[in-house]
Amino acid sequence: MLKPRGPVCNLDCRYCYYLSKERLYPGSDFRMSEELLEEFTRHYIESQKVPEVTFTWQGGEPLLIGLEFFQRAVELQQEYRRPGMQIHNTLQTNGIPLDEEWCHFFRENGFLIGISLDGPAELHDVYRTDKSGRATFDRVMAGVELLNEHWVDFNILTCVHAANADHPLGVYSFLRDEVGTKHIQFIPVVERDNETGFQEGEKVTERSVGARQYGEFLIAIFDEWVRHDVGRVFVQIFDVSLAGWVGRQPGLCVFDETCGTALVMEHNGDLYACDHFVEPRYRLGNIQETPMGELVSSATQRRFGSEKRDALPGYCMECDVRFICNGGCPKNRFITTPDGKDGLNYLCEGYRAFFRHIDVPMRFMESELRAGRPPANIMVADSGGAAHRGERQDI
User: Fold this and answer.
1) Angle subtended at Cα 165 by Cα 358 and Cα 329, rounded to the nearest 5 degrees
2) H helices present in 52-189, as ranges
3) Is 275 a catalytic residue?
4) pTM (2 decimals)?
5) How confident is the model over 215-226, as pLDDT tens digits?
6) Which residue among the candidates 12, 130, 153, 275 is catalytic per the annotation?
7) Cα distance between the two ends of the chain
């Protein structure tokens, strides 16, 4: 992930874990230079052994660096790409800086845009406010309307937190029916309660979603999706789950057996192990001082990735849904197992309930895939109850 303006943002979302990263760079202007952009682009493309390369832009709010920066980024990508190589760009934004010029650029250059939206206004505006504490929902929706008008591909990233977690169907139906999105990511807010902004301590803030609460949120939406929307609406955690049931890698770092491939480069070239671990002890180095390839493949980063698997407690190793969960994201492994061992994921109770709940329909969809039929057939089967017996389990 590239952070061209670091943690700088036009909003002041109360659960944001990245705003505090400004403290790491006192006095910085938080602007990636053109020289650094070119150096990264060249090294990143040269290091790829595949025909398609994706640049992922995040923040803070990446659009605050201005359109000219991204115009130059696209020029450099075309300059350094090898013959036949396809370049893709994805960008996560709160949507508020969008205007006609931005949308025209995104459409012309095939950007996939992620929009942060936490549901209808009364849920979104609880935590997603601007620097003056004002609501942002209407401005975000204006950005969504612009993307639609310009036929820009976008998906929705919804953070699940204390304010919206008890309204799963309200959130889902709003995104599906009123926003009209076909692609949704649900990200649980697990915010550690400390003064550092780092991943430390065992307490979470009152804004965090509860483990049981998160499981119930996913289950309620899954039951709606599996009856009406398979093949029509694509929910990331449901797609990832199906991959696990058919024996493939989940393809999402939080559920992969190991991690360490989702590194972050800050605005000044500092490379960190992960977006959730932008902390001094996880800084690998700076690509202007050490070749990026050396940092990415360093023993330090390999150890970071393998510890996700190697540090799993026995309680997880014996779990019947470990094949898909794999202990979840290391940033959330700060509670103890029933037998008192460290390293259990804070969301374990919810994940375990959700993955067990979806087992029967996932097995049905798996069998349809293996037979060369569409998984969406489950909607026909489920209308008679055949594919979804054994309704919700206790959590």
Assistant:
1) 65
2) 67-80, 100-109, 121-124, 137-149, 168-173
3) yes
4) 0.95
5) 999 999 999 999
6) 275
7) 35
